[in-house]
Automatic annotation (TrEMBL):
<keyword id="KW-0488">Methylation</keyword>
<comment type="similarity">
    <text>Belongs to the HIPP family.</text>
</comment>
<keyword id="KW-0636">Prenylation</keyword>
<protein>
    <recommendedName>
        <fullName>HMA domain-containing protein</fullName>
    </recommendedName>
</protein>
<keyword id="KW-0449">Lipoprotein</keyword>
<feature type="domain" description="HMA">
    <location>
        <begin position="25"/>
        <end position="88"/>
    </location>
</feature>
<dbReference type="Pfam" id="PF00403">
    <property type="entry name" value="HMA"/>
</dbReference>
<dbReference type="GO" id="GO:0016020">
    <property type="term" value="C:membrane"/>
</dbReference>
<dbReference type="InterPro" id="IPR006121">
    <property type="entry name" value="HMA_dom"/>
</dbReference>
<keyword id="KW-0472">Membrane</keyword>
<dbReference type="GO" id="GO:0006950">
    <property type="term" value="P:response to stress"/>
</dbReference>
<dbReference type="GO" id="GO:0046872">
    <property type="term" value="F:metal ion binding"/>
</dbReference>
<feature type="compositionally biased region" description="Polar residues">
    <location>
        <begin position="143"/>
        <end position="156"/>
    </location>
</feature>
<dbReference type="InterPro" id="IPR036163">
    <property type="entry name" value="HMA_dom_sf"/>
</dbReference>
<keyword id="KW-0479">Metal-binding</keyword>
<keyword id="KW-0104">Cadmium</keyword>
<feature type="region of interest" description="Disordered">
    <location>
        <begin position="133"/>
        <end position="156"/>
    </location>
</feature>
Amino acid sequence: MGALDYLSNLWDFSHSKKFKKKKQLQTVEIKVRIDCEGCERKVKKAVEGMKGVTSVEVDPKQHKLTVIGYVEPNKVVKRVRFRTGKRAELWPYVPYDVVYHPYAPGAYDKKAPPGYVRNVLVDPDPRRVTAAMADPTEERISNAFSDDNPNSCSVM
């Protein structure tokens, strides 16, 4: 081993750094109680300062905060809870067209905005879900004997 090899091992000038995995652009929707314009400003200001946030939208009628950026959803929720002192959770609602039985006791939520129900497909809570979910074949069979179907079987 020569002197140059020894010195090159001593001072490594290679630029091989470990690259961090880049975060993907995400849209994070959060449910936060917004009562007035002051609450709206407080929630918006709490999230705008985060690293990676590109835009923030607040919908006070639906109590919804939408954050777009290179952020992690759980970190945004924690930041809103810490900075504002309000209870915050990820947006638990989906349009009622997506759910098989939108008015089942587990999916129907009186606090949901119009046209939305609780997302029972992703987060089924066994305490709230009491009705069994029907699959598409059960729906086809039950619709075959429906009064609304003009071609249905009428056995009386």
